[in-house]
Amino acid sequence: MRMPHVRHAEWRARTDGSAPYTGDVQPEHPLVGAVLRSPYPHARIVEIDISSAERSPGVHAVVTAADLPDVHYADYGTPDRPALARGTVRFVGHEVAAVAAETAEQARAAVAAIRVRYAALPRLPRFEDALRPGATPPRPGAAGVAVTSDRTFGDTEAARARVAHTVSGRYRFGSQAHACMEPHTTLASWADGRLHVWTPTQGPRTQQREIARMVGLETGQVRVHRIATGGDFGSRVRPGDVEVLAAALAIKAGGGVRLTLTRADEFTHTKHRHDFVVDLTSTADDTGHLISREADILVEAGGFTQAGGNELNFCGLVVASQYRLMAAHVTGTVFYTNRRSGGAFRGAGGPQAVFAVESQLDELAEQLGDDPIDLRIRNANRTGDTTITGWQIDSSRLVECLQTAREKIDWDAKRALRGSGRGVGIAAAVHVSGAMSNPYVAYSEARVELGDDGSVRVRTGSGDPGTGQPLVAGIVVADQLGLTGEDVEIVYGDTDRTPYDPGAGASKGTFMTGNAALGAGRAAADRLRGLAAEKFAVPAVSVRLEGGQVHAGDDSISIGDLVAAAPDTVDGTLSFDHRYQVGLPFADPSGFGNLSPTYAFAAHAVEVEVDRATGQVHVVRVVAVHDSGTILNPTGAHGQVVGGVAMALGAALGEELVYCEDRVANANYSDYALPRAADVPDIETVFIESDDGCGPMGAKGLAEIALSPVPAAVANAVAHAVGVRVRDLPITPDKLVSALHAGSPAPVPPLRRRLDPHRLWISAMRWAYPRGLHAVLHHGGTRLARRHRRPEPIRLRTPDTVAAATAALAAECGTRPLGGGTDLLLTREQGVRSEHVLVDLTGVAELSRLELTPDGDLHIGSAVTLDRLAAFALDHDAPALAATVETIASPQIRAAATVAGNLCQEKRCRYFRGGFDCYKRGGTTCPCYAVLGDHRHYHAALGAHRCQATTPSDLSTTLTALDAVVHVRGRSRARAVPLADLYRGPGETVLRSDEVITHLVVPAAALRRTTVFEKLRLYDGGFALVAACVSLSTDGGTITQCRAVLGGIAPTPYRAVATEELLGGASVRNEQVDRAAEAWTFEAHPLPGTVWKVPTASAMLARCIRAAIATDQDG
Amino acid sequence: MRRLIGRRQRGAAVSPASSELDVNGDVRQVVHAPDATLLTLLRDDLGLRGAKLGCGSGECGACTVLVDGVPVMACVTLASRVRGRVETIEGLREETATLRAAFAVEGAFQCGFCTPGHVVRLAAMLRDGDVPADDAELRHRMAGNICRCTGYAAIVRAVRAAAGGEQDGEQRG
């Protein structure tokens, strides 16, 4: 049956800003919580002295492990983590103590006043060490091993005899951040012997039970209040990162405490998806039937296991269950390391399994000469199957899913495109609808209340992180009573006002909450029918419920009147309770058994376009076909699929947490490539509905399986498009370009170049870094690093003339010009700028001039905003300038950010900005963390010195190509410098402290040239990995003038002079363009990870040159 | 449960700034810390909590408000520099009624934390009659607002519905 679209019950409050989230609740005088975190990856705590923190102004409570019962988070079966470090710290950022004070400043000061003595412990081996060829196989119980598993399913002997084809490979699904829009926030309040908690979660009951246990209370002493939840995705279904700390502080302070993490904390310290590596071998017989799989799964736990064992378990089961197999052997290890811990994440090991299995299926199809969809259909799990793991498939439409995906993506026609740069790929998945692992997840309760005023209310203990889980309860109850979902009031979340529900997780929300509500709704409907049958003397089966009326033959009565007349109505309400219990046995340690009451299936087809020049994958289209049984909430279901696909596209193409010295280094949305609106393609969702499963009205889980097929489908499509298989997510441009250029020799600089003393010196440093220099600088040199104090509060100066501005800049220390401030405020927070006297230039009228002079030059005032510049450039025939600005950040930022601010912004190096005591931040005794760290995307391939950063301004690339001259005024003199000479290092200028940029002039001659800009970035609005700008003019078949500039490749905007020289005066022949575009590469001096930038930049230059020539000749 | 009432005191005093702000048509004089952002001032001093703190660095858009009709990130806007008319989601409730209803019909929000930011950003587009006909361009203009839940398609449909045109309209599937 098809269910109608229903609006979310809280749509008004959730769209008009009135829905309260935890940060919006305003109890009287809440205290502010703050956390003391370990600066060491692994150390023993020798002593903690909180006495001076306790005496700090405004402090009401300081808690350490000593204040808490000696218990660990239950999490998912491997309870190893206490709420605060007990005895040892296991990762940088490990919570050691927490403070509650009256203001954030006081809390911060008190945290700083806690004295901890640490004794360093040897760092555990890194995850990468376990991945090295020849690494010692882990032993159960060995140091650093958290969980191991070794399981055999099916008949291995019989399988072995039939194997004809074998494919093996290593598949890595790296760590992804939940990146919920609402940062972790908990408000806890202790009053009258009870703990009240407001905290975003999809599992209110789990939070209640676990918080109580962790602070030594009875479950009933904790009340979790209903509060809007700004995303969960597994990150806070159980307490772990803030909840218990806030609770402990509230109890100790005897009042209300709110603990809020920053976005940087969120990325750096909270749970994330475990880093997974699956070594997989798949076999098939001669007829294209799958025979067996052998997998070794390696999982990085981090400091604590949290859900690591659970995710390993499920990953292994999916590997052995997806498609019909004869046998599987799955081993796995969860490793402790000294990084922050992974945790539950939407999919729970399933997406990692599916990525490996489905990527490898395409490799197998290739070997078999088989069509990938035919191979999948031949081996698909079908209704009535029992897998070798014991999963009883009561309902499967996988074959139909695959057939529909084939048709919708136009598979057969598009497979002919093989190798053309455009391609299609497919992947399928299976997922549970609840995993029966413990008694708490095996039942759900619901209550339906019928009022004598005709009202219908359903109570469910589920939460709503955005999935609309409670709405499902309303929908199924409404269906029973002949109403629509919007007629039913839904009371959810509050543990004092609702019955038990296990919450969301393992895709059980719809299944459990729906079945409980269905039972209660059915009881209510039966009762109404009985009452009406009695009243009108008709058989109950003939009574119909519709539109709030109960119809019996020609008679009818409203629900409210029927309730009012019922003998057992209490206070005007008739109540119906239902407890739904899953009857399956709990999971067996062997792994064999029916894990879930019912299973969902999906097949996703993806079409991609791969730019061979830049390695950029453009997903053109996704067709997501799902068998989730009956779709109870179509609006919500479409949303779950589209949102899930988008999240998985992030994992497939950009999202990855980057570590340096065991700390997350890319802890912000700029440096974590999560999809923006323009990065998500058209996603067509199709539901193959059925009601033969045991879910409510035949519904099955959906939210997690929506992610699973995507990364493999993309990898398969990329392989189809360009013949390169990437087995290591995310598929970023560097990996594709490197693979496409594998085997082609790197350009060899001429001898004179190689013997250049400066280059030799840099080469020597780079050689020495991994051989001890980095360690010496990191462990020793950073002790001498400049210390950054929190900048003083801002003092704003608002001059209205340039003279007043330069005077203000010269008047005192610590001054800096202020444009839009969109970056300057941030750099103060990040500790890379400390100026506090900010001279606002946006009020100086002269600096906002933007015009064409009578000579035709473009005069750009330094305080002109980026959006104004773009509009002006578009209107005045400077499309490349407009196009450049359009790629910068976002409309909101461009509305405030100024031209000079963009040109002068600090380098974006993640280590520099991320608090690492690097060469630029800490001084000459400190290392450049990029040399050995991840430097693939935002570091130089040419001309770098000890710092490998680049100038982030895209405007500087284009304006350099346009011969822009920067006009600068100081207190006593004015000067003009070519833009290329403005920079003396990455994001560093030659401006003196009293100088301001007044304006830039782009000469008319440059404006007359044809200019083309191109930028390679990881997401819409992201910083340039490589940017290219070519500005040229032609006369007949000859190039008369040419500028070729590259951004993102060198510390400062790089003019490819060799390219310009070859092109100047040259004819515009094709081969000439390629040769010229590569001519600069003899100057390249890349780090290992930026080698790919060299051919990429050349290809981008060539493309810009061709486009410019074509346009110029057309014009 | 030791109470340290005797030690309650404010931190070292910093000379505060004072700003006159026009927020949703009300002109208010607000005394605030000199470093205060527009977002802090709206949320903590004026009690307008519809704009959210998602990142504090101008990257996610959950704090989007209008200043003189232009969407800006309130979390990186210094309160003491704001001269124009500020409009928040609270002040735009009526104007965005159609858009918000479309959000509900299309399922353009899930957790809802980013939603006020999206609504405010799109309100400016609708007010200016400036909804790009091309979906790619429309999506590009939404680059300042991250949504982790919906995958954006429903938001695109909602703004199209509110603009009253089907233009490039995306498929619902």
Describe the fold and architecture.
The complex is a heterodimer of chains A (1115) and B (173). Chain A is built from 36 helices and 42 strands. In chain A, the strands form eleven sheets. Chain A has a seven-stranded mixed β-sheet. In chain A, strands 7-15-14-13-8 form a five-stranded mixed β-sheet, sandwiched between helices. In chain A, helix 34 packs antiparallel against helix 35. Helices cover 28% and strands 14% of the residues of chain B. Chain B has helices at 38-45, 97-106, 115-127, 135-141, 153-163; strands at residues 17-23, 26-32, 64-67, 70-73, 85-87. A five-stranded mixed β-sheet of chain B has the order 2-1-5-3-4, with helices on both faces. In chain B, a hairpin with a 2-residue loop joins strand 3 and strand 4. The longest helix of chain B has 13 residues, at 115-127. The radius of gyration of chain B is 19 Å and the shape is elongated. Chains A and B meet through helix 1, strand 3, helix 3, helix 7 and helix 17 of A and strand 4, helix 2, helix 3, helix 4 and helix 5 of B.
